[in-house]
Design brief:
mainly alpha; 10 helices
């Protein structure tokens, strides 16, 4: 860079000092033109020498400073740090010393900053480690949160399902209650209808029984009342003939003769009772299983009450035909055995025997069968049961022997004809 003295004078305003120097320069030019050194020349030479010396020192100082900076730069590039100790050269100028102090101060700040950076790095590493731990914990917590969230979602779903199920159950319960109410109403209606039906059935049964009784009486040519009257007539007529036959022809006592006449009736009833059971069973067996041969001890076929009554009515309708076969079978049985009854006895009492078995057959065909009270008042010397017996002969009040048994509409039923007692 040119000094102000070296710049051209043209185009520039000169100061007072520069004006004086100019005048002096003019005067000195006068000396230089003559080849003699001027005072100005001497002064400038001295100044130039001083300046050259200063420049040399400045250059040396710059080299020292540059070398120091190169050392700092090299260590910084290689080791990423600055020298810890920098010695100031001995005899260095104040400027160099000042620069070295600045460099030392800068290096100390670098060391301090390096230490601070290391501390910060360690803190950062610690924070990063802690951050990793926190991230790990956060991840674990997040996993737990995810699991809990999933569990909560599952529970909420289950709760929702349970809630819906509960609502459905409540709806079903309400439906069930409504259905129960409807069922109860229907049950009440059914009960009422059943009661009405039972009432109607009862009335119908009464009508059917009444009608059935009328029909049975219409089918039955020998109803219980008629049989009772004929059984009474049998005692008054044919039984007396047989009784007299035993007394006069066979010389039996009255009590023995009376017992004998009742034996005939007892045997006839037992025979008819067995035959009636056989006929009823064989008819049912033939209707239910025509291929089976009826066995009274084995066959167990059953029919309902209506069918049983119809079968009984048919048997009553055909009783006049079956009665002849029953009489013949009973007489044949008595004649073939002759163990209990002699031929003379059978011949003398045949009319009584046939009439007895005929009436017993009609008795057994009734529904239910009529019953003869043979066991009533068998004991002697007891008071006469006038609800069951009439006194036929004798003047006393106690039973001597039975002349004729009472007749019932069924076993353990009502008396339709009283028996006859001999008193003493």
């Amino acid at each position: 860079m040119e000094s102000p003295e070296d710049q051209p004078l043209q185009g520039r305003v000169l100061g007072p000092r520069e004006t004086q120097s100019r005048d002096q320069f003019v005067e000195e030019n006068d000396y230089s033109s003559s080849g003699t050194p001027t005072p100005r020349d001497k002064e400038q030479t001295t100044q130039l020498l001083h300046m050259n010396s200063d420049m040399t020192r400045a250059k040396d100082d710059m080299d020292i400073i540059r070398a120091c900076l190169e050392t700092v730069k090299t260590k910084l590039e290689k080791e990423n740090t600055v020298p810890e100790n920098i010695d100031t050269p001995v005899g260095a100028s104040m400027d160099v010393q000042s620069c070295f102090q600045a460099i030392v101060s800068m290096c100390e700040r670098c060391h301090k900053n390096g230490r601070d950076i290391e501390q910060l790095k360690r803190k950062i590493e610690a924070y990063e480690a802690k951050n990793k731990e926190l991230e790990k914990e956060t991840s674990e917590k997040q996993e737990q949160i995810d699991r809990l969230t999933a569990a909560i979602d599952t529970l909420e779903k289950k709760h929702s399902e349970k809630k819906e199920e509960k609502l459905d159950n409540m709806k079903e319960q309400m439906k069930m209650k409504n259905l129960e109410k409807q069922v109860n109403l229907k049950v009440a209606e059914v009960v009422k209808l059943q009661e009405e039906n039972n009432t109607m059935k009862h009335r119908l049964n009464e009508l059917m029984e009444k009608k059935g009784s009328e029909m049975a009486d219409m089918y039955n040519t020998f109803p219980p009342r008629k049989i009772a009257d004929q059984f009474k007539d049998l005692y008054a007529s044919l039984r007396n003939d047989a009784f007299q036959f035993y007394i006069s022809s066979l010389n039996m006592a009255d009590q023995v003769a009376a017992a004998r006449t009742m034996d005939i009736v007892r045997d006839a009833y037992a025979f008819c009772e067995e035959a009636s059971l056989y006929q009823h069973g064989s008819v049912i067996c033939g209707l239910v299983n025509p291929c089976e041969i009826f066995n009274v001890h084995q066959s167990g076929y059953k029919v309902d009450e209506v069918d049983s009554k119809q079968i009984s009515n048919i048997r009553k309708q055909t009783s006049k035909y079956s009665c002849e076969h029953i009489k013949n079978a009973f007489v044949t049985k008595l004649e073939s055995s002759q163990e209990k009854y002699s031929l003379e006895e059978l011949t003398g009492c045949m009319a009584y025997i046939e009439r007895s078995v005929e009436l017993c057959w009609y008795m057994c065909l009734q529904t239910p069968p009529m019953h003869i009270g043979f066991a009533d008042n068998d004991k002697q010397d007891i008071a006469v049961d006038k609800t069951k017996y009439e006194i036929g002969s004798g003047k006393g009040t106690k039973v001597d022997f039975v002349l004729w048994p009472p007749l019932y509409d069924e076993k353990d039923g009502n008396i339709v004809m009283k028996g006859v007692i001999q008193t003493k």
